[in-house]
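pinging the channel bc i need a second pair of eyes. not urgent but kinda urgent?? the chain im working w is below, pasted from the shared doc
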Amino acid sequence: MNLKAQLEIRISDALAAAGAPDGSGALIARSNKPQFGHYQANGCMAAAKALKINPRDLAQKVLDNLDLSDIAEPLEIAGPGFLNIRIKPEWLARRLTEAERDPKLGVPTPEKPQTVVVDYSAPNLAKEMHVGHLRSTIIGDAMARVLDFIGHKVVRQNHVGDWGTQFGMLIAYLNDLAADDPQGTQADAELSDLEDFYRKSKQRFDSDEEFANTARQQVVSLQAGDAATLEAWRKFRKISLSHCSDVYRRLGVLLTDDDVYGESEYNDDLVNVIDDLRSAGLLEESQGAQCVFLDEFRGKGEDDADVPLIVQKSDGGYLYATTDLAGIRYRQTQLNADRALYVTDSRQGMHFTQVFGVARKAGFAKPEFMLEHVPFGMMLGSDRRPFKTRTGGTIKLTDLLTEAEQRAFDLVSEKTPDLDEARRKEIAAIVGIGAVKYADLSQNRASDYVFSWDKMLSMDGNTAPYMQYAYARVKAIFRKAGIDESQAVGQIVLTEAAEINLAVKIAQLPETIHSVSVECMPNLLCSYLYELAGAYMTFYEACPVLKADDPAARTSRLMLCLLTARTIKKALGLLGIDILEQM
């Protein structure tokens, strides 16, 4: 159990013993002012209001019923009724010694590990990935890494858009090219730029009614399982997935072809979804379409209109909602999932609220199956509008990553021109890609954020280059002194304030990772890293390491340095960001 959880349980018990109402929580918060305490308990405020007594009086009653002598120094009442908690150096030293010996750095495995489905990235395969796919891909990857590290069984699901009208359009255009070029030379050349191929086929679809009808017929043939149409579809799918795999490799995310489970996988089950909704008495016809009306969405549309979840169009076609319902049932019955995270744009909030609600009412999702939408805001340009090219076009994700690497290469070349070019490119790839990912992950995912090359590549502030440099700086101590890391073995002794504050911050890794896993907020891990780096810099300036007077203090401080480096490396790794041993 992490430190914060231990404190919360004990203080909640003391609140109950002091007469606080049922449900009164400890409300433990990290203190921003270590001189007053490392944690602060704020639960007395709300409980005292309910009891109609002075919060300081309740705080004193809590202290009378609380024994934290094994963990903390005597607690102090501060302000209107806060409890300031200072962790004992001896307890911290033992905790860090245990963490140093643990490959998981003290992060506990849950008593009942869950099977968690993480649905993320999910590009439409008819086109190349663009910047709009970045946030889903890296937020989802970070969550999958964190949950896997904790000890849950993680099932990655790349719910790609690989079915529907756009494929009829592409197949029709490919067939036209093949008719004029039997050898397929022109088709292969055009398919090398899938985005341009899609654009040309879309222009034909919008301007040529005969072509549009042919495209629609191709959709019918695809759904009917026509062999030639399916062969063309598989070709597009393979090319598109190859583009995706390229991006995933460059981004360093863990999605593979084995994780792809797209819309096409559910196609045969969609008719069953409709039948089961009808059997459950949930379907209503509206303007020829089959819909489900949830009470909570009655009168929520324009002019107080009801907002239905449409599951089948008037022409018999299915929608995203139908596929998502099939997906929920599959994930519960076939994957035996306990929890499912859907990492998508916040604009899909209503869609998922309705889909989850219908899945519950239809029995596709049992009450204990946790369905969670993990929404994120938009990436904006300097004009605070959706991030696009200077001409207003969509930016390919691969082009963004190339620019990140080039900008990082220019910076590396400026700072270390003596390094050979191959090494500078290697460093630039790690720094550039890491900078893009960290700049995104360090934001509260629910908010929009402004994309800034200068800010994300800065060596100062809460950025990937700063964290990578902090790691390299710690490792440099051992390298420059010619000390093997295996020699940093002994007893951790904490006497100086800077040592204690650094130790507290290292010990907060388990609670931070737990919070990320529950709240699906990777930015909490970024904030922790920034605080850890700051605590280390303060420690390094205040406490001589290699020049420590006492050999025992020298060993203890080397162990603190090594634990700091291991913690930074692990936390960055959970965000999908690589480190550099030297910068």
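so The longest strand covers residues 339-345. and The CA atoms of residues 60 and 77 lie 8 Å apart. — does that match what u expected or am i reading it wrong
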